[in-house]
Amino acid sequence: MALSRDKCVLCGKEAVRSLATSRLAEAFGNLGNLKLPLKGRVGLCKEHYRLYKKKVKAERETSLARMKDLYS
Ligand SMILES: [Zn+2]
What we know:
two-stranded antiparallel sheet, 2 helices, binds zinc ion
């Protein structure tokens, strides 16, 4: 089990996914109070991974809406 030793970087629960730190920072914005490695990957638990996906999706929808405005 490669992931069994990983913990969620946000809450310390068992991680189900790992993400590049830069992508995490993009999705969650200000992570200044977290000690994140500048490179590499960090773990996310189920809940925080869901939250991450939600944020990424919201961002994508915002830029899609912006594109629609441009072409309508
Ligand atoms: Zn978590």
